[in-house]
Amino acid sequence: MGKEEEDAWVVMKTARAPSNIAVIKYWGKRDEKLILPINSSISVTLDPEHLSATTTVAASPAFERDRLWLNGKEVSVEGERYRNCLREMRARATDVVIESSGKVITKEVWSTLHIHIASENNFPTAAGLASSAAGFACLVYSLAQLMNVKEKYEGELTAIARLGSGSACRSLYGGFVKWNMGQEADGKDSIATQLAEQSHWEDLVIIIAVVSSRQKETSSTSGMQESVKTSPLLKYRAEEMVPKRIGQMEKAIKSMDFAEFARITCADSNQFHATCLDTSPPIFYLNDSSRRLIGLVERWNRHAGEPQVAYTFDAGPNAVMFAKNKEVAVQLLKRLLYQFPPSAEADLSRYDYLGHS
Ligand code: DP6
After folding, report:
1. Which of 173, 199, 225 is the last residue of a domain?
2. Are both 84 and 132 inside the same structural domain?
3. Where in the numbering of this chain does the Diphosphomevalonate decarboxylase-like N-terminal domain appear (predicted)?
4. Does ligand 1 have an atom closer than 6 angstroms to the CB of 35?
5. What CATH number has the domain bearing residue 326?
6. Which of 21, 26, 44 to mutate to test the pocket of ligand 1 (most atoms within 8 A of CB)?
7. Is the domain of 152 the same as that of 14?
8. Domain enclosing residue 227, as ranges
9. CA of 37, closest atom in ligand 1
10. Ligand 1 within 6 A of CB of 127
């Protein structure tokens, strides 16, 4: 066989990973390189139909270097986070047989092969809707499929996704997920575990209000660095508040106690934004619409006598709301339409359920 024929093969895999939304927030690292957090966090994985990344990874001897396309545009793959994920995945590659030819790609060959990656989001990038979480989770998962990587311990792949973006480790599981901060210096125990399947709490409905699809001004990565350096409240939060809340939240999820779930979710979102305000210079992620939404939910819950809806905001003004059940979700949509009437040209089909967890 000539060199050209030898180089003619390409292997490829495509995968999809959903985004996740934290109900106990991760904010602050104790190790920037390994992306080790200062506190544990808990999230709900969203429905991939609505918020997800789809990634295709391909390998071929004809590829001369690693390359990456995000939403159709080529970007550098030289960043440390991509390099770390690719290195860790290559180190775990095992034999793969190409079905059509019977040719075996051995571990040794994998270490010499270059990878092409194409990833697409089905929602606005960097608008505070955890696009990096879905993206890195999907990259690691699709590479695991391509390179036939088997976990040596449960959660090993989540630790690699974590090297891409902290919150990505929680997107490898569906349902309710906890990221244990871990204790080890090498981050081996800083992994995600599933607390409950999505089907565990079928009643819960998630509604996302995209207040703005603009790119956020302060990225999570730099925002949390500033908070770790300057916010005394963040230190108190990580050491005193979060450990208690993690236990309470686990219990609320297990027993499907919506009132408790809502209380902790809202309190934790508000405390996270308080630490942003406590950062010097202060970081503002919420805008007037976000604050109006908070007011609406708070008044409703007080009036009802017990929580019907919970809200949470990441590093941006968009709200993620949890309704107690379908009936409440319908009421919530009505109230949102009343409070934030769409313009005449708006596409009303976009005002729809985003499904449950
Ligand atoms: C507010 O995971 O995006 O969404 O680890 O630096 O990539 P890096 O940060 P990232 O931070 C997410 C912060 C958050 C809260 C959360 O998802 O827990």
Report:
1. 199
2. yes
3. 17-192
4. yes
5. 3.30.70.890
6. 26
7. yes
8. 205-350
9. 5
10. no
Task: Give the up-direction half-sphere exposure of residue 44: CA atoms within 13 A in the CB hemisphere.
Answer: 28
Evaluate whether residue 355 is within a structural domain: no
**Distance in angstroms (rounded) separating the CA atoms of residues 135 and 131:** 6
- 201 CA to middle of ligand 1, Å? 25
Q: Is residue 357 part of a domain?
A: no
Spatial contact of 93 and 107, defined as CB atoms under 8 Å apart: yes
Q: Residue 71: inside a domain, yes or no?
A: yes
Ligand 1 atom index nearest CA of 165: 7
Domain containing residue 11: CATH number:
3.30.230.10
Q: What is the mean pLDDT of the chain?
A: 92
Non-local CB neighbours of 162 within 8 Å, separated by 6+ positions: 34, 35, 168, 169, 179, 187, 190, 191, 192
The answer for 6, left when phi > 0, alpha when psi is -120 to 50, beta otherwise, is alpha
- What pLDDT, in 10s, does the model give residues 156-166? 999 999 999 99
Answer yes or no: is the ipTM higher than 0.85: yes
pLDDT digits (tens, 9 = 90+) for 306-331: 999 999 999 999 999 999 999 999 99
Total domain count, the chain: 2
Contact 216 CB / ligand 1 (< 6 Å): no
pLDDT at 328: 98
Q: For ligand 1, is residue 41 a contact (CB within 6 Å)?
A: yes
